[in-house]
């Protein structure tokens, strides 16, 4: 764990940016120069203003807030919607410090898009965190641009390690990673929803059904982490030959669960590529 982090600016501290910001604050790691966050509305800005050490800007009240935040911070985390990224980059480009590290939180937006607006010399990295970062259990994929030094990568890695684990990958793999760890929490929540519905269908009330389903997922993942065992081995230990679990697992396998996950991740990957196309700047500078 690092002793401190450089000054941070969260440009668009929505659900993902807000999760990382809250996770950094919760980690207790000092941030030299402080943290600034921007949001469009005063309501959203007020939520973050309650966090210790965070200066929260409502763009509705301070239209130049992104530019000022960019000028003040060493590490800039771009968390606006993918289609909004080029406009934001154009807005902050004249104000980015020479020593700045620009980190994308936006799905599908390529490093080429960042270079086409900010210039090839600006240090840029793509990240793909997930929302469990809020509780220090995140998984973040990190892809460095050509201008990033080993020290730059280490700085950004240290930032995301305050909220979980980091996997460094080449840029061509970052979208594929997003379909697993980035979108993955939603898959887990959906499975819990469906198991809860099944429990209600078996006659349990909603509260007990939720406790059973949520507690089972939480306990199973805690066991997986604590044991260090392969998940297939842990599954085998629960699945007694000719028992009830074996019968249930057979139904799931016969339903083609493996194919469903392949199709789901393929669909997410296709959408990431669409977002990349949608967010590419128009005109000769798009590259």
Note the main sheet.
Answer: 8 strands, mixed
How many domains make up the coordinates? 2
Q: What's the name of the CATH homologous superfamily of the largest domain?
A: NAD(P)-binding Rossmann-like Domain
Q: Which strands sit side by side, in order, in the main sheet?
A: 3-2-1-4-5-6-7-8
- Radius of gyration based on Cα positions: 21 Å
**SSE string, helices as H and strands as E:** EHEHEHEHEHEEHEHHHHHH
Residue ranges: pLDDT <50 for 5 or more in a row? none
The first-level CATH class of the largest domain is given as Alpha Beta
CA distance, first residue to last residue: 38 Å
Helix percent reads 40-55%
Task: Report the CATH topology name of the largest domain.
Answer: Rossmann fold
Tally of extended strands?
Answer: 8
SS content category: alpha/beta
What proportion of the residues form beta strands (DSSP E)? 5-15%
Shape by Cα distribution? elongated
**Which CATH architecture of the largest domain?**
3-Layer(aba) Sandwich
Roughly what is the average pLDDT, rounded to an integer? 92
Number of helices: 12
Domain Pyrroline-5-carboxylate reductase dimerisation: 171-275
Keywords: Amino-acid biosynthesis, Cytoplasm, NADP, Oxidoreductase, Proline biosynthesis
Subcellular location: Cytoplasm
Domain Pyrroline-5-carboxylate reductase catalytic N-terminal: 8-108
């Amino acid at each position: 764990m690092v002793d401190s982090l450089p000054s941070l600016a969260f440009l668009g501290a929505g659900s993902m940016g807000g999760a990382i910001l809250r996770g950094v604050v919760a980690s207790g790691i000092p941030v030299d120069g402080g943290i600034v966050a921007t949001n469009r509305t005063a309501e959203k800005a007020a939520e973050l203003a309650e966090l210790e050490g965070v200066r929260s800007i409502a763009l509705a009240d301070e239209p130049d807030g992104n530019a000022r935040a960019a000028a003040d911070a060493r590490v800039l985390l771009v968390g606006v919607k993918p289609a909004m990224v080029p406009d934001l980059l154009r807005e902050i480009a004249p104000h980015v410090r020479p020593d700045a590290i620009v980190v994308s939180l936006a799905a599908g937006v390529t490093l080429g898009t960042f270079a086409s607006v900010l210039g090839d010399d600006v240090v840029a990295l793509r990240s793909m965190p997930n929302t469990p970062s809020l509780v220090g259990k995140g998984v973040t994929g990190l892809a460095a641009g050509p201008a990033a030094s080993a020290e730059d990568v280490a700085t950004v890695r240290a930032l995301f390690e305050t909220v979980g684990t980091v996997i460094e990958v080449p840029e061509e793999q970052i979208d594929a990673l997003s379909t697993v760890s980035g979108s993955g929490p939603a898959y887990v929540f959906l499975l819990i929803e469906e198991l809860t519905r099944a429990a209600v269908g078996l006659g349990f009330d909603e509260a007990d059904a939720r406790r059973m389903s949520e507690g089972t997922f939480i306990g199973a993942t805690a066991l997986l982490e604590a044991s260090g065992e392969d998940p297939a081995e842990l599954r085998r230990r629960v699945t007694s030959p000719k028992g009830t679990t074996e019968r249930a697992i057979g139904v799931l396998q016969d339903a083609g669960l493996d194919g469903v996950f392949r199709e789901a991740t393929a669909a997410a990957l296709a959408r990431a590529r669409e977002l990349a196309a949608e967010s590419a700047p128009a005109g000769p500078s798009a590259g």
